[in-house]
Amino acid sequence: MTTFELKLPEELRLSIFRRVSTQDALKLAIVCRTFRTSAEQVLYETISNVQYMNRLYRTLVVRPDLASLVKSIDLCPLMLESPVPAVVDHGCSVGMTDNDYRFDLPITENRIAGLILRALPALESLKISILYLEDRRLYTEEGYDDLAWQSAHPIIAVLGPAYHPSNGNHTTLLSQIPGLKNLKDLTYCGARFPSSLGSLPNLENVHLSRDCFFMDDPKQDASVLDPDLTRSKYRYLESCLKQYICLKTLTIDILEQERVTRHGDVSTLLDRLRDVQGHIEMMNLIVVQPHEGLHYLNLVLPVPSMTAFSGLKKLSMPYEWIEKVDNETIVMTVFSKVFPQTLEVLELQIPQEHTCAWLLEFANQRSKSNFIHLREFRLYCSEMRGVGYEKFRYDSRYATQVKDIGKTGIHVEVSYHPDEYKPEWDNEDYDPISKSVVDELRSLSVSYQAG
User: What are the start-end ranges of the H helices in 72-225?
Assistant: First the structure.
């Protein structure tokens, strides 16, 4: 196949490759020499869904220029996996040892993932998603096997035994790994959240995603309501986050069937963040919808105050978790006790019918020189609970209130869960209110003619 050259501005070339599929990008790189560099930059700056860890590692070792392009990577360690053929069997000679582990012997893909981290000097974003293999060693007749669980520690699985938190030198070792030196964003899901990574000097943004254990004991039964357990809840998270000295953004995904589902749990959880409250700029408490609905929100007590988060700029949480105030007897002292004055963006998930009226009263406090930094309200709608997207966009009762809030100088954005999307919403002429009336008249007409 003959290749050809095509002169285009680099920014335009990168824009093209970010809009095409991976397969199309590879084809363009083959037939056009000019596109080859751009294709490599786009394909390697973000790496996800790695199926063959050994092949990726071989490429990064042979092509260090590609390794230097990687800004983001997703790794999926397998707990208690069996060894696989060594990397050397795939054409890449690895003349090194990792503490007590020789890499000329069969190793696990997890340890290959550790080698990949060592090969990425410019890495800024890391996602660790723990996958579990069926292994009876985790369980005994008496239940959970703590020793087996400790041996399945994800940091150990990826980096090796020397990086166990019990090793007093593990923080120094972590800071020496090229792929962790410049790390800014960490997403962690599927296992116990590690305190050891908190020592990384540039780590600012942490996302505790689905199935992340941040309670004292991952085997604790969430269905058991014990006052002593409630008082001790999330102490592990509290002690863990103390180590995250540069933390600015904290995101926590919350599932109904998991552990933040009891009376007062949200307040308890936020209280456990007391040592990092002062320097967190963004707090996202995200409800991940279960199929059966969000009924547990009826049980969760509202959060009385967020003012301890003195540097908070963006807050995202369910509307029902905020201590609402009576619009008829509202006073500024009530609002100031609920939110910090530094707030710039307030995102309310699962809004109710009276949400807009409440927000409008909140926005009016700006006339009293309060919340002067507030510039945006976001309403994240769901059909499973609360008022739907169509009501806020098309129903005059709510749409008028949204416009009134906008008159105070605050931008209002109404969005929806992807599962709720309707193609009709892309049509500017779509009017569900008129459509429902027309449909009703048509049904009456058919009934009349049939009669």
Answer: 109-118, 146-151, 154-159, 170-175, 178-181
